[in-house]
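Weekly modeling sync, notes
Attendees: S.R. (lead), two postdocs, one rotation student

Agenda item 3: backlog of single-chain predictions. S.R. asked that every request posted to the team notebook include the full sequence so nobody has to chase files. The rotation student volunteered to paste the first one in as an example of the format we agreed on. Action items at the bottom.

Example entry:
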Amino acid sequence: MKQFYHAVAFVVVALWGSTFVFTKMLLLSGLSPAQIFTLRFIIAYILLIFYELMVKRTKFRLFCNTWKDELVMVLLGLTGGSLYFLTENAAMLYTTATNTSLIVCTCPLFAMLLIGLAYRQTEHFTKMQVTGSLMACSGMAVVVMNGHFVLHLSPLGDLLAFSACLCWAVYSLLMKQASMHYGTLFITRKVFFYGLLTILPYYWLVPGFPSFEVIFSHQIIWNILFLGVIASMLCFLLWNWIIRKLGAVVATNWVYFNPVTTIICAWWLLNEQITPWFLLGTVLILSGMYLCSRKQTGNKSARPSGRQQDW
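Predicted structure, as returned to the notebook:
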């Protein structure tokens, strides 16, 4: 069964790795990063409510048990939604794609550090796990650099990319806590809601939103639907479920595989070349992820308390 969870994690990361094509097409069509994020989260939120009420037929729950838990949901929406996407996309304006990918995809290391500090009584990482994570991180760097070991430092852009990296690491930490008490559907819906709520101040600073005529134009609507239905609603649901099943550290290590799926997608759709560096990096990533996941069996702290259903 554990292999199945890893397979689902791979599919999610593969889908997320392909989103650069659709996002790039939307950017070329005139939409801003914030507008793309808002549209995809609106679609995901509406569909998730419909699924919860009409398909799953669960009792619609509006708030958490305590205000502290509700604050955790706000932070999940911020770190996994609005702030993460804004900082990652803004980083691309000030630094190279290579720098951004290298910095953002190191988030599993920071997630491991944060979880180790927050749960030092229950989480004990072995030397094999640490070695595996570092090996996977090295493989990710080899894939992204692709044999061109030159970095172009840009303090503002690199700082924004690092902020996005920390956002996802904090999201993984908070998801570990939230999944112990609440179901995946409820958490994911709250992430979408608070992601949309926390993006609103941005529009006070940078007003403007595309018209319905623009949104429903042929070159935009299909890309937005893919990002909203598949990359947001479906992938966030599955990712939060995977964190519950595999644990935050093991699940987040799949982020190292993101550049691999991106390059495969570029090879498939854009005819970009796959180099020996890509193959070497992929082997390092897979080997590192295997080593990092070996200890997770029997780790009760990575599992929910059982008081809530998985979904």
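Discussion: group reviewed the output briefly. Confidence is low (pLDDT under 50) at residues 296-307.
Action items: rotation student to repeat for the remaining queue; S.R. to check formatting next week.
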